[in-house]
Sequence to fold (164 residues):
Amino acid sequence: MVKRSRSRRLAEGAWGLVLLARVVGVTAVAALLLVSGAWDSWRTAQHVMLTKGREHGTMTLADCGDTICTGPFAPKGTAVARPRVTISLPIRHTPGARIPVAVQPGTDKVVRAGWGGVLFAWVPFGGALLLAAVVLAGGLRMRRTAWTLAACGAALLAGAFLTL
Fold:
């Protein structure tokens, strides 16, 4: 058994605490990124994914500005027709196109429905996956996990882009 001095043992113990603090800190940052991305995505995704009791229908794009498009809402089922609703861009459609939408309760704002709407609603989470991948790869040297997160984030972003 090798005898070590008391100061050397204390230095080794302090270094262990520094490493533990780094792991805890980087894990907390990655978790914060993922939770905030999911939280931001859920604000829009809930209107598209939880369809029971929601107003659904189609929107005819009448006028598109720099940031929003407006047009009339034609209901499907028991929804109420509206002469003018708004939807945020990006939408790869021209005025006159009809797109499936879901109405946000209590407003005249609509969100894209269908697979395109679901994927577009989760875009903030896809970005959070990419950022968390960088944090995990750089801070914790978890390269395989980082590549998996990055692949999932990139697939989500690519899917949203292709279905709009």
